[in-house]
Specification:
6 helices, alpha/beta, 225 residues, Rossmann fold, eight-stranded mixed β-sheet
Length: 225
């Protein structure tokens, strides 16, 4: 991580979130890039190489129950809860481009529709938790995670809950349409993944969605600053 910049601690209800500055801005006034990790992961220790084209600061958020952020008691994790985590980070940063991997890609899409004037481009990439629990509910049985008393992330409840998170395609596309209609960007969502679960395949069919490479998406959103 950026040794000259300490972790930024943000409060979300009873949870303390860790926002890690990974690289300072290279061009004065350039918009920040917010990185959202996959299920069971945390912000990388070093700035990823694929962010090289980005002229602004690069920061990574640890979701609730992941990385250095608080592990709450009792589970109950949802993608919408993590979207609220990212919204807290966005409120701190102001307008930003958001790049998510896996679970973070789904959260980035939700955030782009919920905060279309603040998310200046959402980049969706492969990673753990991209598919979630599929397009519809499955068995009503409640699996119990392996017991662990070390208090370290990732929270076993997060791994279980977020693996079962239901993602209907029409729900995902409703956020895509909000981003397309309200952001003012020509292509507010960029899909850079090889895996295409049902929700993402539906998103790819929507107007205002680019199917592209990470580098090209970063360059396009940097130009739209």
């Amino acid at each position: 991580m950026n040794a000259s910049a300490p972790t930024i601690w943000l409060r979300h209800s009873k949870v303390t979130l860790a926002l890690h500055p990974l690289r300072a801005e290279r061009r004065a006034g350039a918009r920040p890039l917010l990185l959202l990790h996959g299920r069971g992961e945390a912000t990388a220790a070093r700035v990823p190489e694929f962010t090289e084209p980005w002229p602004g600061a690069v920061l990574g958020l640890d979701f609730t129950g992941h990385g250095a952020s608080t592990i709450p008691r009792g589970g109950g994790y949802t993608a919408e809860q993590l979207m609220a985590d990212a919204d807290v980070a966005l409120a701190h940063l102001g307008p930003a481009t958001v790049l998510g991997r896996g679970l973070g890609a789904y959260v980035a899409l939700l955030l782009s529709g919920a905060r279309p004037t603040l998310v200046r481009g959402a980049i969706l990439c492969d990673g753990p938790g991209l598919a979630g629990g599929g397009p519809r509910p499955t068995t009503p049985s409640i699996p119990w995670p392996a017991e662990r008393d070390d208090g370290l992330a990732p929270d076993p409840f997060a791994l279980v809950d977020l693996a079962r998170d239901v993602r209907p395609p029409d729900y995902a596309t409703s956020f895509t349409r909000q981003a397309s209609q309200l952001s003012g960007l020509e292509r507010p969502v960029s899909v850079c993944s090889f895996e295409r679960p049902d929700w993402l395949a539906a998103v790819c069919e929507e107007p205002g969605v680019a199917i592209t490479r990470i580098r090209d998406a970063l360059e396009e959103y940097a130009r739209s600053a």
